[in-house]
């Protein structure tokens, strides 16, 4: 076993004080990516204080300086997308091409916000009183705690940190303890970027220590979190005690509606992509396939064939379409949900073949259930695995009702050739993002992203909407 790596980046220095933890390759559990050091309480406090100290200068830095640094980080991520994509593939288990795509996209977030730096315009208006002008301007908040999940180890950090820095804030990142190597690779690019010491810090390890150090600190001005509902709730309760601003992006139970008039190839491609790519471990995955009765039998026949044809394998094997599940906990949780669905009467039509692969990994065949209904536990809870359920409905009205009948509301999709039904669905779907004739997964980097109900809390992320969270408005009255 290699020596423990310096994994915490605090005030421009790498440190290695806390307890060591390993990162295991889910495609081959005998392959350890290395031993990483968790942050201690002192490390966390130092990171927060360093960010606080750096804020005074960084918040007043020139727009040109911020733009140059964000452009550099963006270009560097794009240039290194193969190298970092391979680390993500080995550590998280997503197929190499998806890992590379994630890093490339992360670079685009930085480039986009590099340009946004120059668009920080205020407003000027006349007062209702004579000889007085009113200015509305935005200012940075201070220190932002960024807490991220394992499923997009670099992209989620990028879409939060790029706007945080663009609007003049300092950052302490707490990545998921499941993906420390990806976080170190990302932090090394931040180190090279020319950011002044303390503007960006990274503390690693379990949520109970490093995560709570951020959510419970009086010196953190805002927390942007992506992860499970349970953790989001705990963070919000911690944050409110200090009146800390919070933005939470959480779980989902996204529905893809397939109507009788759907183009069948589009329906199958969207269902396979949305349900199983990324091993179903996307917050935008289509775990419920709501299919109108007239197309149901033909849809499931083709869907079974397409699901069984998917190649499951090592994330680094170029022919792999579906990588392993991230770890043993997620693997066992998926199996528990499968058993519960069978007990509840769902019929498994793909997914029961045993997996014979060269290495021991958390491999699971994409699993498709039919004869399910929307009250079953498997259609209520977020499973976060390569498991999709078909729910048969009599018409569009029932499809919409079932689609909206969920505690979550992140993305939804409809496959139809009817402009009338697509337009109606767009308006009445209770989700934050709606896809027409597209998979529920796959979003752009220049427009807002987020959900409704238990999926999201607080202002939207990404695009120009990001400024609502990462800056604070000031109204100034000027009398001559
Ligand atoms: P998680 O909630 O277990 O952990 C997320 C992060 O929170 C990790 O860094 C973890 O260490 C930290 N954490 C845990 N307990 C904490 C605490 N008490 N205080 C502070 N921090 C704490 O989530 P996960 O398993 O890493 O990620 C999967 C979840 O993320 C799924 O629910 C998925 O839907 C969600 N997700 C949502 C989006 C979105 O944009 N809506 C995107 C990606 C993932």
Provide tags for this entry:
480 residues; alpha/beta; Aldehyde Dehydrogenase, Chain A, domain 1; 2 domains; 39% helix; binds nicotinamide-adenine-dinucleotide
Ligand names: nicotinamide-adenine-dinucleotide
Indicate how many domains the architecture comprises. 2
CATH class of the largest domain: Alpha Beta
Average pLDDT reading: 97
Question: What is the chains' assembly state?
Answer: single chain
Radius of gyration: 23 Å
Gross morphology is globular
Number of helices: 15
Cα-to-Cα separation, first versus last residue? 71 Å
Low-confidence stretches: none
Question: How much of the polypeptide forms β-strand, as a percent range?
Answer: 15-25%
Relevant CATH superfamily of the largest domain: Aldehyde Dehydrogenase, Chain A, domain 1
Can you put this structure into words, describing what you see?
The chain has 480 residues and is α/β, with parallel strands linked by helices. The protein has 15 helices and 22 strands. The model has no long low-confidence stretch (mean pLDDT 97). Helix 3 (81-92) crosses helix 4, helix 3 (81-92) packs antiparallel against helix 6 and helix 4 packs parallel to helix 5 (155-166). It folds into two domains: 8-250 and 455-479, 3-Layer(aba) Sandwich (Aldehyde Dehydrogenase, Chain A, domain 1); 254-436, Aldehyde Dehydrogenase, Chain A, domain 2 (3-Layer(aba) Sandwich). The radius of gyration is 23 Å and the shape is globular. 53% of the residues are buried. It starts with 7 loop residues before the first strand and ends with a strand. The strands form six sheets. A seven-stranded mixed β-sheet has the order 14-15-16-13-12-18-19, with helices on both faces. Bound molecules: nicotinamide-adenine-dinucleotide. Nicotinamide-adenine-dinucleotide (NAD) is lined by residues 147-152, 156, 174-177, 206-208, 211-212, 215, 226-228, 231, 234-235, 249-252, 283, 382, 384, 410, 455. Residues 147-152, 156, 174-177, 206-208, 211-212, 215, 226-228, 231, 234-235, 249-252, 283, 382, 384, 410, 455 line the site of nicotinamide-adenine-dinucleotide.
């Amino acid at each position: 076993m290699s020596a423990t790596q310096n994994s915490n980046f605090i005030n421009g220095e790498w440190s290695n004080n806390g307890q060591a933890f390993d990162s295991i390759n889910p495609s081959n559990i005998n392959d350890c990516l290395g031993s990483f050091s968790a942050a201690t309480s002192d490390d966390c406090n130092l990171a927060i204080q360093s960010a606080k100290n750096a804020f005074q200068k960084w918040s007043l830095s020139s727009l040109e300086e911020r733009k140059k640094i964000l452009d550099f980080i963006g270009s560097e991520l794009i240039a290194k997308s193969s190298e970092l994509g391979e680390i993500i593939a080995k550590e998280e288990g997503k197929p190499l091409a998806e890992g590379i795509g994630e890093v490339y996209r992360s670079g685009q977030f930085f480039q986009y916000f590099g340009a946004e730096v120059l668009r920080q315009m205020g407003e000027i208006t006349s007062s209702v009183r004579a000889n007085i002008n009113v200015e509305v301007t935005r200012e940075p908040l201070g220190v932002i705690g960024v807490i991220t999940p394992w499923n997009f180890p670099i992209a989620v950090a990028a879409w939060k940190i790029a706007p945080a820095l663009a609007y003049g804030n300092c950052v302490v990142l707490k990545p998921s303890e499941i993906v420390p190597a990806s976080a170190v690779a990302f932090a090394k690019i931040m180190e090279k970027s020319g950011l002044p010491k303390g503007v960006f810090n990274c503390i690693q390890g379990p949520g109970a220590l490093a995560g709570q150090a951020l959510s419970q600190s009086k010196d953190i001005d805002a927390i942007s979190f992506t992860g499970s509902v349970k953790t989001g709730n705990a963070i919000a309760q911690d944050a409110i005690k200090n009146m800390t601003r919070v933005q939470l992006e959480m779980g989902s139970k996204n529905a893809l509606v397939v109507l009788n008039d759907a183009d069948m190839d589009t329906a199958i491609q969207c269902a396979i992509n949305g349900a199983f790519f990324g091993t179903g471990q996307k917050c935008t995955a289509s775990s419920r396939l709501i299919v109108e009765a007239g197309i149901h039998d033909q849809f499931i026949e083709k869907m079974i064939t397409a699901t069984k044809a998917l190649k499951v394998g090592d994330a680094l094997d170029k022919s792999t379409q579906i990588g392993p599940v991230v770890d043993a906990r997620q693997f066992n949780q998926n199996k528990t949900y499968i058993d519960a669905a069978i007990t509840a009467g769902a019929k498994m039509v793909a997914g029961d073949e045993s997996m014979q692969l060269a290495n021991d990994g958390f491999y699971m065949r994409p699993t498709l259930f039919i004869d399910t209904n929307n009250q079953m536990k498997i259609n209520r809870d977020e499973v976060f695995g390569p498991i999709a359920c078909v729910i048969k409905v009599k018409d569009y009205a029932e499809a919409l009702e079932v689609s909206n009948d969920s505690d979550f509301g992140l993305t939804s999709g409809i496959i139809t050739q009817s402009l009338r039904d697509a337009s109606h669905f767009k308006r009445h779907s209770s989700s934050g993002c709606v896809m027409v004739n597209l998979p529920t997964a796959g979003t752009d980097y220049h427009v807002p992203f987020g959900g409704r109900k238990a999926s999201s809390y607080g202002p939207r992320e990404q695009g120009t909407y990001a400024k609502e969270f990462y800056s604070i408005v000031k109204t100034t009255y000027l009398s001559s």
